[in-house]
């Protein structure tokens, strides 16, 4: 069949072949015969690979082996000498042996099976019964050592030279090659899932749609509780430090220092408040950093209150102990005075003078003892007041710390929720884009498959016409994959 005869086929067939197989059409136009070779067929474990290797080793340039029976000029059917051919061998032969292609038979493993001659005669009879074209078929025995390979090579070369090139066969080959291209492309399109990476990206995006809001909020709560423990410990440490300093200063304080000690305690509380505020600020900054959010104006949530120390202690109430101290002091003073002036009583002239001197010394001793007892009591009074004042200050510090923590937790939670909304919006937009792209890919894939089906139908109609002209049966090409 010439190029003009190719144009006699349906126009859609010619168009499909031109699009899919331009090289084949160019060969037909130039009159060049298609490159063909030997296709080796046979049942499994019949020794096909070993026999083909032996033929190549004998003369590598004499034959060209092909992988597809469509491209075969000669078919080499390898039979096993272990037993006569059966249904499997005949089915393979039906697939590969087209009427226009000669078949050369070889019987392998004759060096292993002694009854190979009987098996060969049985095979010849079965082949003649199977098809009239195989009635006079010659079966060439070959052995693993190379025996019979030269005769087989000569038979293959004779069969190849005896086959005259037929233009119609060339056109049939081009059509079958085109069909094979279309089937392979359709299979590749069908097996390839379009948009696999996009689907994986869509799954990942939906998994993180909320920006891990639940995990971040849970981590934030844990961090807040940890910060609460640390800051409460810091408050307790500052209160203990202030109490220790206050007790030491009060124990050494004189009357004037005790009178102004409320101002000193207020100054100390302001210093400790600064340390507490610095610790809270540093811990909350670390909390925000761990949460990975940025909070605008974080210090405006809970302003730092001015540390207020309660007013100075109430005047100490002078009770029974003070009166008893006066009596005890007077008694002790009189006894001390008598002891001091006892030497003077030995002089009669000074005996009268010892009385006022004794009274004076007793009064001084009573006054000093009473004043010392009052000073000690005043220290205890101020110490008690300082302890109560620090309890009040600690309560204010704890209130301040808890307020700052709650405000920071609320602000960070709002920031996390805001970021989650933005992330969800971005993910929704990206998922919508992915869905559009996936629909486009699916539509494109369906269009490609539909186009392949239409082109395949056009090529099949052309194959049917050419096979009718060649006298070949209208075989299903899918069987060539057997």
3D architecture notes:
- With 482 residues, the chain is mainly alpha-helical.
- It folds into two domains: 36-164, Rossmann fold (3-Layer(aba) Sandwich), CATH 3.40.50; 213-455, no CATH class.
- The protein is built from 14 helices and four strands.
- The protein has helices at 3-7, 11-20, 22-30, 48-58, 87-96, 116-130, 149-162, 167-191, 196-207, 213-252, 255-259, 261-291, 320-341, 354-470; strands at 37-41, 72-80, 103-108, 139-141.
- The chain has a four-stranded parallel β-sheet with strand order 1-2-3-4, with helices on both faces.
- The chain is rod-shaped and about 180 Å long.
- This is G domain-containing protein.
- It comes from Rhodococcus wratislaviensis NBRC 100605.
- The chain crosses the membrane at residues 347-369.
Topology record:
Elements: H1 3-7, H2 11-20, H3 22-30, E1 37-41, H4 48-58, E2 72-80, H5 87-96, E3 103-108, H6 116-130, E4 139-141, H7 149-162, H8 167-191, H9 196-207, H10 213-252, H11 255-259, H12 261-291, H13 320-341, H14 354-470
Parallel strand pairs: 1-2, 2-3, 3-4
Helix pairs in contact: 2-14, 4-7, 8-14, 9-14, 10-12, 10-14, 12-14, 13-14
């Amino acid at each position: 069949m010439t190029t003009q005869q190719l144009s006699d086929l349906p126009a859609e067939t010619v168009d499909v072949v031109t699009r899919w197989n331009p090289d084949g059409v160019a060969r037909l136009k130039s009159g060049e015969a298609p490159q063909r070779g030997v296709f080796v067929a046979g049942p499994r474990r019949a020794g096909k690979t070993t026999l083909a290797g032996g033929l190549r080793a004998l003369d590598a340039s004499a034959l060209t082996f092909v992988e597809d029976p469509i491209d075969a000029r000669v078919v080499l059917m390898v039979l096993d000498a272990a037993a006569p051919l059966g249904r499997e061998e005949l089915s393979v032969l039906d697939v590969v042996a087209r009427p226009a292609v000669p078949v050369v038979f070889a019987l392998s493993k004759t060096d292993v099976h002694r009854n190979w001659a009987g098996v060969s005669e049985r095979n010849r009879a079965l082949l003649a019964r199977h098809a009239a074209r195989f009635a006079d078929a010659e079966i060439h025995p070959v052995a693993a050592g190379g025996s019979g390979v030269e005769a087989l090579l000569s038979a293959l070369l004779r069969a190849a030279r005896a086959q005259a090139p037929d233009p119609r066969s060339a056109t049939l080959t081009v059509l079958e090659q085109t069909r094979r291209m279309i089937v392979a492309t359709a299979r590749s399109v069908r097996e390839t899932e379009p948009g696999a990476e996009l689907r994986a990206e869509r799954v990942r995006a939906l998994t993180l749609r909320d920006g891990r809001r639940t995990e971040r909020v849970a981590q934030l709560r844990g961090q807040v509780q940890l910060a609460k423990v640390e800051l409460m410990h810091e408050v307790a440490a500052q209160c203990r430090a202030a109490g220790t300093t206050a007790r030491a200063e009060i124990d050494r304080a004189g009357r004037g220092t005790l009178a102004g000690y409320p101002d000193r305690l207020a100054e100390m509380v302001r210093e400790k408040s600064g340390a507490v505020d610095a610790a809270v600020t540093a811990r909350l900054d670390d909390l925000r950093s761990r949460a990975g959010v940025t909070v605008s104006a974080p210090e405006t949530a809970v302003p730092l209150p001015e540390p207020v120390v309660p007013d100075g202690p109430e005047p100490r109430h002078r009770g029974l102990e003070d009166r008893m101290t006066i009596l005890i002091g007077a008694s002790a003073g009189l006894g001390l005075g008598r002891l001091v002036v006892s030497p003077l009583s030995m002089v009669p002239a000074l005996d009268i003078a010892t009385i006022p001197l004794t009274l004076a010394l007793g009064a001084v001793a009573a006054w000093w003892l009473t004043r010392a007892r009052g000073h000690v009591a005043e220290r205890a009074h101020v110490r008690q007041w300082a302890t109560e004042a620090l309890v009040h200050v600690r309560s204010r510090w704890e209130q301040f710390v808890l307020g700052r923590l709650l405000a920071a937790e609320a602000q960070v939670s709002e920031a996390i929720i805001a970021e989650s909304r933005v992330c969800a919006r971005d993910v929704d937009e990206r998922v919508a884009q992915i869905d559009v792209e996936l629909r486009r890919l699916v539509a494109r894939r369906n269009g490609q498959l539909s186009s392949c089906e239409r082109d395949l139908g056009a090529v099949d109609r052309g194959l049917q016409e050419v096979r009718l002209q060649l006298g070949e049966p209208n075989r299903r090409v899918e069987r060539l994959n057997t």
